[in-house]
Amino acid sequence: MTTATADLYDEHGYDLQSVPLQFQDLGGVRAFNGPVRTVKCHEDNALLKSVLSTPGAGAVLVVDGGGSLERALMGDMIATIAIENGWSGVIINGAIRDRAVLTDLQLGIKALGSNPRKSTKNGSGEVDVPVTIGGVVFAPGARVYADPDGILVEKPGA
Question: Is the pTM of this model over 0.70?
Fold first, then answer.
């Protein structure tokens, strides 16, 4: 990504939604963008891993973990799978783990924080459904932009 989110918002503000939640930059890539794919899950990362195991083609996986910091939804092994499959980044409304290792991986990662506790693996949740995080709707196929200033996503129908 060559255009900063602040500049994108200045140019296209009415067509973009800005996420007010303060996500942390946790991956080795600080600025990333791509079409949205989604997973909605709560403290269970089986679907997240399954989706990231498919070709990403530069997409960004937006994970609505309900804001839970009780269990990590992604760590270094799943992040490596995402890189191997061509994903641009992952935005997690929840926690990650293996924080020190993730900073060295060539993947955009934003999350609310970290917790060493593993997630459950029951496969519960939904894939490629609109998710709302911080009042912002992430619709599958919309474009998302992320950098240290924050996260912007196209408004539905824009």
Answer: yes
